[in-house]
Write a structure and sequence with these properties.
The strands form two sheets. The protein has an eight-stranded parallel barrel with strand order 2-3-4-5-6-7-8-14, surrounded by seven helices. Helices cover about 40% and strands about 20% of the residues. The protein is an alpha/beta fold and about 400 residues long. Helix 1 crosses helix 13 (about 365-385), helix 2 (about 55-65) packs across helix 4 (about 110-125) and helix 7 runs parallel beside helix 9 (about 225-235).
């Protein structure tokens, strides 16, 4: 979906396909047929943006076979789908029964991460619509905090990899005329947990094609204030290359037994749900929600937030809620001003099938309805900010 900002620039809104598990190219094609096109039809749009997730196996097939790449581009066109951004965070296995810490490997100290991200940049340059010259890719925020923090050479290795990537992106732009930018995506528990953590390493790299991806669930989970975070990035000259629109799980009164019971329903075995609370002494947290719910790991006199991407249009029932207000405030700063701070927005609720059983979509139809409802909410927010939806 495309929108015209009051300054005349085009802002793209998509939804991320990592909600649909697929490791192979055939699986990606099935996503387009079974999920993406039905969502587009529900929205009554001739064109829908998707934030494509290409697992390592699918990416390698496309890199090694130009005919397959051309066929994928043709299929996107025929189904009324367009790609301006990729989710390059998960490497493989995102649809596994247990993902947890595996999603952070390989990290930016490992050569496989650089190779994969380079491949994704080349693929995105070929998949961009003919009238679009800029693409973006989100990636993991360097590494999970351990063992990175105890390895004296890790930061140097990661910086060298990102510098090499920037040089490759420059060469790609010269060759294709397409500018691909990469955004580190701060996430609780990682080396770069907050936007503030991103400033030093990105300043060290110092390249306009390497910036940040602001995920509004992660921002909220770490109790970052949107204005403060975005002001600091602007002052430091760090570009927001894309933003993922998502909402975290919020518990205002975690000391109450009924709140603990409600939270426990969201503790599940597939994904990591880092949980945080803000105290007078600073941020406290656990790596997963079940650790927090069990008691004793976190103080419970202040609100808790958990890294669980809940549907934007359907916050959980009381006594829980979502951090949709943080998304609204962030979006207002990103695109509500005289000039947009980013032009790529991506709804990313990948946890539909990890929701408590009674909230999960039971059919493809229900899932498509839910994704369409999220995109409708995001569209309405953009229109309210003065952007004009384009055909």
């Amino acid at each position: 979906m495309r929108f015209r900002h009051p300054d005349g620039s085009i802002v793209h809104l998509s939804y991320c396909t990592n909600v649909h598990p697929a490791e192979t190219l055939d699986g990606v094609r099935a996503q387009l047929r079974d999920h993406c096109e039905p969502v587009r039809r529900r929205l009554g749009r001739d064109r829908l943006g998707i934030g494509l997730w290409l697992a390592r196996e699918a990416a390698r097939v496309l890199i090694n076979d130009p005919a397959e790449l051309r066929a994928l581009r043709a299929e996107l066109d025929s189904r009324g789908l367009e790609v301006v951004t990729l989710n390059g965070f998960p490497y493989e296995g995102f649809g596994a029964d247990e993902v947890k810490y595996r999603v952070y490997r390989p990290d930016w100290t490992e050569p496989e991460r650089l190779a994969h991200t380079t491949d994704l940049a080349r693929l995105l340059a070929a998949l961009l619509p003919d009238d679009v010259t800029e693409g973006t890719i989100s990636t993991l925020p360097l590494a999970w905090r351990t063992p990175y923090a105890t390895d004296p050479g890790a930061a140097r290795t990661a910086r060298a990899a990102l510098t090499t990537l920037a040089q490759r992106l420059d060469a790609l732009a010269e060759l294709t005329g397409k500018s691909i930018r990469i955004g580190l995506e701060p996430e609780p528990g990682c080396t770069v947990e907050t936007t503030a953590d991103a400033i030093a390493p990105l300043t060290d790299v110092g390249h306009e094609r390497i910036g940040i991806c602001v995920d509004t669930c992660h921002l909220a989970t770490s109790f970052e204030e949107p204005d403060t975070a975005l002001d600091a990035l602007t002052t430091a000259g760090i570009p927001v290359v894309k933003s993922q629109l998502s909402a975290a799980l919020h518990a205002e009164h975690p000391h109450l037994p009924e709140v603990r019971t409600a939270l426990a329903a969201f503790a599940e075995p597939r994904f990591l749900h880092q949980t945080r609370t803000r105290t007078a002494a600073g941020l406290r947290g656990t790596d997963d929600l079940d650790e927090a719910v069990a008691g004793g790991a976190l103080p419970d006199s202040t609100p808790w937030r958990a890294h669980f991407h809940v549907p934007l249009h359907a916050p959980p029932a009381p006594p829980l809620t979502s951090t949709l207000p943080v998304l609204r405030a962030t979006l207002a700063r990103l695109v509500g001003g005289p000039v947009p701070l980013t032009r790529h927005l991506e709804v990313e609720t990948y946890t539909w099938q990890a929701l408590p059983a009674e909230l999960r979509p039971r059919t493809r139809t229900q899932l498509a309805d839910g994704i369409a409802a999220e995109l409708t909410l995001a569209r309405d927010l953009l229109v309210d900010l003065g952007l004009k939806e384009l055909p």
